[in-house]
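RETRY 2/3 - previous attempt timed out on the joint model. Re-submitting the same 688-residue input unchanged.
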Amino acid sequence: MPRANQRPRLVDVAEHAAVSLATASRALAGREGVSAEVADRIRQIAHELGYVANPYARTLASGASSTVGLIVHQVDDPYFSEIAAGVIQLAAEQGLLVQICQSGRDPDYELQQLRHLIAQRVGIVLISGSGYDDPRVEAAARAELAAFQDHGGRAAAIGRHALGIDAVLPDNEAGGVALAQHLMDLGHRRIAVAAGSAGLTTVADRLAGVSSALRQRGRSPADLVVVHSDFTRGGGRAATEQILNEHPDTTAIIALNDAMAMGVLSTLRSRGVPVPARMSVVGFDDVSVAADLAPSLTTIRLPMTEMGRTALTLALKPRATRPRRRPTGHLLVVRDSTGPAPKT
Amino acid sequence: MPRANQRPRLVDVAEHAAVSLATASRALAGREGVSAEVADRIRQIAHELGYVANPYARTLASGASSTVGLIVHQVDDPYFSEIAAGVIQLAAEQGLLVQICQSGRDPDYELQQLRHLIAQRVGIVLISGSGYDDPRVEAAARAELAAFQDHGGRAAAIGRHALGIDAVLPDNEAGGVALAQHLMDLGHRRIAVAAGSAGLTTVADRLAGVSSALRQRGRSPADLVVVHSDFTRGGGRAATEQILNEHPDTTAIIALNDAMAMGVLSTLRSRGVPVPARMSVVGFDDVSVAADLAPSLTTIRLPMTEMGRTALTLALKPRATRPRRRPTGHLLVVRDSTGPAPKT
DNA sequence: CTAGGGTACGTAAGCGCTTACGTAAGCGCT
DNA sequence: AGCGCTTACGTAAGCGCTTACGTACCCTAG
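RETRY 2/3 succeeded.
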């Protein structure tokens, strides 16, 4: 008999069906050892009663949590919110719950969040955002994740490697190459890079691509102006100020993500520098607003939402002997923020 | 003795401290009935062992879940991601976990998500986004939330009323008034509204503000062109096409949120309509990209992140006899997308 | 000196599930 | 008939906590 005004429990279902607790549990879990008719009756009754298993009791008893913890740098950064959207979509389809944490781009805080998530006994950890150059932090995260997986947890990374877990990885270097080639094709010779924090592997990878493209065309990467700031609009603005002041002959700016590119565009506009007439600008990621900026942004498209889904898909599969790596496609999307280098 | 390679349990702490389970539990919960020295020793040992309570066991035993469920329309819509950022921030400070769900702006699916969250025994439900005009759906949600609160759950809404729960509410109508007045002050007489879905209370409220401002100035709201679409960039684009085609004499467009405003600006640009020279555009919300658009967007600022925090704060307080309502400030932010009405 | 009342702690009964193990019935086989 | 095997189910022991209740002790008042 369900208690007055309380959610029904498994015993209530079992009593209604006149079976034992164990049989009810088996039937609802779809495990075998229950005849088809009895199983159907139990499911039917559970449905009528509006029975939904208490996940706390279930997890405590079985030891297998069905919630996924997602770590992002900032939820209100479009790059991450699109990833989160993908994860949440697929999780909803699978009946999983997503717990989300922000690391605020701080490696130590991120580590703390990771530990917290694991201590909260989530079943799956998904970690997004760039890796850090700091070997201490990376090793600690790696160790934490290894222990977590050894206890039966599953983990996957989005856009970061070197964590010893499955990962979905965009080809940041190839993207950098594509951007630099595009600008060189347009005749640009004085190219500056508005880069995120120097300690991020994503920055290093994208930058490496740009440099290698220059080298391929017989140009010295040493000529490249690189200004480090951070992966935000504010960072893009700061970097642009510096580029404009210290390297006034620059004709193209490569922002290493779209957030920075937005800051770059905004500063150029307020400084009265026409884009792309006097300055070409490119970004990276193709967040959904990129197409609606003025001018619309030439950038590298990454399938963020799909990356989120893929990461969860990987984590849902049984662990492989060695970490899997799923590359993601990328695509140069040419829009209105790039044009031929101005004649001087 | 902690089991090899396993997380320590409360018994492990208790054994190390040579006290009973109950005492250890009391000490760590900071409840009384434990002498100061013993409590300190227990806390010390727990810390050394890296003990973190198993939330599943805790919740099962105490019946009080410490996870908060957040329902948004879309996480990758900046309005919602900024709210989510606020909620997640405060939750992290309070040691709470946030489970996030997307309703996809579908009232029925939203209701389903709400039920799911409650069935998952979250302790707090936060529901954001506009209410719906559909009384059936609203009543169902209201009933669900009432039952949830009667069982000890806490709930709060962000930007929607009529749910019988605490709410933080921007003054949508006053915002609409401010926008319309601003445009009339600039001499605009042919104003069109790019509105979200007709079934949303937010749309109705903001629209009511616009109409009432017209009335205050002795103008007939009947003259107002209102095009319904949806609260997305695509919706803004569609609405703009329609306005341009059917009402070519329009000199100002009020988009009822910033996402739509972005679509409006993008369409005007591709149609070659200069903003604000031939058309003024305003939005609503002041999402963080609004300042970086070209032209930068005149809009009503809502403190989304703070709204998220406030909602959680409300939910953390004990339930009041009647639902509380926290108004939020709003502010007309004038930027470059509005200017004097063109002389004809 | 004892009754009464705190204080500090221990004991044990759950919370609502899962699951290892036990058991009874039915089957085919020798 | 007796054996073993499978199938379908029940019994009960936890999972790791919280908390009502019990108990030993000390302090004070009468």
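Chain A touches chain B through 50 residues (CB under 8 Å). Closing ticket.
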